[in-house]
Amino acid sequence: MNGKTAEILEDAIQRHEKFWSTVEETYAEAVAQGSQLVQLLKSVDLDDAPSKEQMGKLTRAHKHLLCLWKERRVRLHSMLALIAFRTDTQLVVEWLEQHGDPYLTKNTSIGETVEQARTLQRNHSHFRQIARNTYSNANKLFEASKAILESGVCDAEKMRAMIGDLDQRVQHFTHRVESRFNLLNQSVLFHTHYHEIMAWYDEMEKKYAERVVDSEVEACERSKEQWLYESDGTAQAYATTIGEGTQLVRELEAHSQHTGIDYNSNIACINRLIRNIESRNSKLSSIWNPQRVLLQIGLRFAVFVRDNCEVLSQIRSWEEDMRGMLESSTFAGNAEKVLPFHQDNTAQVKMAVKNIRKCAQEVLQSIHGNGFSDLRTRQGKSVTDLIRENLKILEVAEHQVMQYAAETSYRIEGSRKLGRIRNVVREIVAVFDREERALQVMSTVPVDLEQALRAQEAHEMFIKRIELNNMDSVRVFYELSNELIREGSTDRSAVVELNEMVTGRWRRLSGLAEERNKLLKAAIVCYKTYLTGVYPILDQLEKDYSQNPDRDWCAVRVGETPQERVNVISELLSKHMDYKDRFLKGCIYAQKTSELFLKYIERTSSGTGVHNRHDSERIMRMKSDLRERQSKILELWTKKKKQLDRCQQFVLMDATRHVLVDWLCGEGERRLNEFLGKGVADAATLEDFHTFKLAVKEERAKIQTLLCMAGPIRDEAKQHAADIADCMDDVRLRFEKFSRRVAECETILRGGKPIPKDDLSLDRLSDPNVEENMNIMKREQNKKMREPMHELIKSERDYIEDLRKCIEVYIAEFDSAEANSTLPTILKDRRKAIFGNYEKLYAFHSEKFFHELSKYEDDPEEVGCSFTVWVDYLNELYTDYCVNMEQNNHVVALPEVMSFFESIREKHGLEQNNSLHSMRIKPVQRCTRYKLLMEQLLKHCSNVEEIR
Q1: Which terminal CB of the chain, N or C, has fewer other CB atoms within 10 Å?
Q2: Model-wide pTM > 0.70
Q3: Count of alpha carbons within 13 Å of 254, Cβ hemisphere only?
Q4: Spelled out in words, what is the top-level CATH class assigned to the domain 3-210?
Q5: Class for domain 290-412, per CATH?
Q6: Which CATH number fits domain 775-948: 2.60.120.40, 3.40.225.10, 1.20.900.10, 3.60.150.10?
Q7: Distances (CA, A) of 937 to 52, 122, 580, 716, 870
């Protein structure tokens, strides 16, 4: 068959396909018409069986024709495939003969270098890839031949012969291609490994030519492992490469025998390369053993460096531990436990340092013994120098830490001593605790002088006992602690602290004992002052002042002159004043002693709070009772003083009368008789008489003064009013009689000439209104003196009313809101902060102080007694109130608090001046008001001693 036949077959196939297309169209048209006919027959209710029979025949004929058509199409295609098979087989054979075999015959070299081998391998791989296409085509031909044989369109024997010949040719060619491919692969592998192993030899020789080691153990271990890996790898690579070269030579020799190709030059090249490998391997093997020794030395050096660093670190850590231990607050208490560990650590450090030195000596001996004196680290430092430097650093660190260890041992020993001292201190403190408890049991507050004296005696015995039992142990402790401080083997502050503890506890015990002693002394002084000092005086004074309240102290006693009576009354008045001073001083002293006693009761922490409060209340009752009695006695004293003042006024007046009468009856009568005896007088006598009259006038002036002063005294006096009136009448009558005789004498001396006027009359040259004016002045003075007193009492009454109003309004509303839980949160538990001791102030002023002031309403000069009696209690009350107010003003100023109390004010309809702020400030204002009123009294009172 030729190409023309192939074209005829292709044309026949096309016409065959076209024929079937026509058949399909005709068949489709016939089927469509048949279907229409069947539908039409159904629509007219005619029998469609003949139509269906014809349609079945048509379908069967179509299927039979399709089978015939397919058989013919297969035959046509098989004939075309046979033509293509013969053509493709011829092409494959031609390629093998013209290209494949000639290429393999021409290219027989396997290369002498890795580059040549890889180039040949690359070219052969390209050729092999092309050959694969031929293999693929041949395989396709083999498959196609099976279909052609099955179709039966050719001679089967010829077809099988053709296929067998083609298969033999392809297999022979494939064997040659693969054989060369394997040779080239082995050549590339050998040359590659040769190149790599030679480079490896270069690298190893260069690497091991340097005598360097690492300073870290891990790096040395890695270097050693690397060396083992490299030596093993080198041996393995050597064996592999030599084996590959030998195998390649054998393959070349075998291939040469089978194919007749000359591979001698390639074999000679391979053998030369093998000898090079053996030579370099022998050279490298000669340095393996020294390198192994060097690596071992390097590892031992690194171990030395590591161990040295660890020992140094341990030394520093141990030093830090020792420092931390010494600085620890628990060091002294753990000294006994720490000592064996410290000794063990010291021994371990010494052993570790000894081992390090031994290791260093061994490394140095190995270095010098193997000729590695120039051995260096990777950082370029000499190994021997580094070893010596590390040993020097270790030596310094060892010396330093051993010094510190010795110091620590010294300190531990000191701490052990300190621990023993602590035990002594604990024993001493325990004894002190027992003594304090014993003292606390004894620390009751005596209720009378006898109990106080017994308690003082027991306390003195207790003091002697604790001094006898404890001073020796305290002295021994001080000796031990001072010795420990001198040694300096422990923390001075700890010893000082123990010293201070013992001293402090001793001082505390001594202080408690001293406080108890002061309490007992204060109790004794207080009870003695009250029982033997103040109360007897109070009883005596109260008894004396209460008896004979209307006694006449200036009653004339037989043989007493008026001046003697004046002296007696003055002495009585002086004694009365002295009694008052002594009485007040005694009361003040009693108040001070009781106040001191109270202070020590409050400071003493023995007993329960209830007992202390009970004792305090008892002493407060004593003070209050003393004030009551003091006030009562001052009132009685004032009454007696007024009696003595009236008596003194009377006796002074009577003594003055006697002096005047004595002059009239004595000197005046004598001179008058002298002038009467002369008769008619000359000028000199008249001049002398004139001088006498001047003296009489002076006496008249004295009498006039006496009469003026006696009048008001007579009006006020009750006890001596008649005596004063008799005294006034007597002196008046005596002087009038004497003045008439003087006038008669002057008439005689003038020769009987009458005197134009009576110039010696008591009424002459006197203003008839003088007495009235003096009374007016007296009343005005009394008014000025009483006005401040009335103002004091009135303002006290108003002040009490203000206090009452604040209590009944603000405090009552506060308590009610607190009870009903309607009190603002901010005011809870703030009653004391806002009102302080307001109710105490009200109770004191309304129940005590107002009545005290009222007693002196008619005697303002003595009102100072009220303040004298109550000044300490006033000071206590108002100091407490003012301090509390000052500390809590900010609470009242809070908006919520102001709003709460403002609503209370509005609820009760109080004026703005009765706000809580105004009510709280009134006690402070009252303090200053007392001072102002006292200053007003000072201005208008004559007897201001009490006020001052």
Answers
A1: C
A2: no
A3: 10
A4: mainly alpha
A5: mainly alpha
A6: 1.20.900.10
A7: 161, 141, 21, 22, 19
